[in-house]
Amino acid sequence: MALMDFNYSCICFQRSEKWSREQVDHLKRQVHCKLLKATSMAYTVMLVDVLERLHIDDHFRDEITTALQHVLLHHEEQNSVVTVDQLHLESLRFRLLRQHGFWVSADVFDKFKDNTGCFKESLSTDARGLLSLYNAAHLAMPGETALDNAIAFSRRSLQSLQGKLRSPMAEQVSRALDIPLPRTPKLLETMRYITEYEQEEAHDSVVLDLARLDFELIRSLYLKELKTLSL
C-alpha cells in the first residue's frame, strides 16, 4: 500500500472509529442476548462455532462457557436413526466441548456406525457432516482408535467429493484436508470465513456485522503499529 493511501485510510478510519466502537458495543449486547436465550443444543453449538471462527468469541468468554456447560449437562436425546444434520451437530458439539476442556467420549459417534463398527457408507455424501467429523476427530487423545478411524473415513469421503462441491463448502473442505480447523491459525481462518459466512443462507446479520467491524478495528490497530515501526 502506498504511503498516501495508507495515510488516507488512517484519516478516514479515525473519523469513524468512535462510531465503529459504539456499533460494536451495541452489536455485542445483541449477541450477548442471543447466547443467553439459546436453549437448543443445535442453535447453541452453531452460534458458538460461528463466533469462534469469526474471531469474536473473546467478547463472550463467560457466556460461551455457560452455554457449553448447558450443552454438556442437558444433551438432547437423539434417536438411533441418523437424521439430516445430526452428524454435523454431534461433531460440532464434540469439538467445541473438547476445545473448551470438557470431556466427551468418542462413543457419541457410535450411532453413526453399522453392525461391523464402521461408519455407515450412507454418510459418505454428507459433506457438511463429514467436514465437521473430520475437524472434531482431530481433538483425539493418544490411543483413541475410534477417532483415528473417523479421520480416515471422513478424509477418504471428502476427497471423493472434491470437484462436486459448491462454494464455500469446496474451499472449506480443501483447507481442512490441508490443515484441520483445530490446527489453523485463528486470524487466518477469520479472514477467509467472514466472506464465506455471508454466503450461507442462514447467516446471522448481527453476528456478521459485529465480525466485520471488530476485524476492521483490529486491522487498523495493526496498521498503526506497522506505521510506527516503519517511521
Automatic annotation (TrEMBL):
Coiled coil: none annotated. It comes from the Eukaryota. GO terms for biological process: terpenoid biosynthetic process. InterPro entries: Isoprenoid_synthase_dom_sf (IPR008949), Terpene_synth_N (IPR001906), Terpene_synth_N_sf (IPR036965), Terpene_synthase-like (IPR050148), Terpenoid_cyclase/PrenylTrfase (IPR008930). Residues 15-177 form the Terpene synthase N-terminal domain. GO terms for molecular function: terpene synthase activity. Pfam families: Terpene_synth (PF01397). PANTHER family: BETA-SELINENE SYNTHASE, OS04G0344100 PROTEIN-RELATED. This is Terpene synthase N-terminal domain-containing protein. It comes from Oryza sativa subsp. indica (Rice).
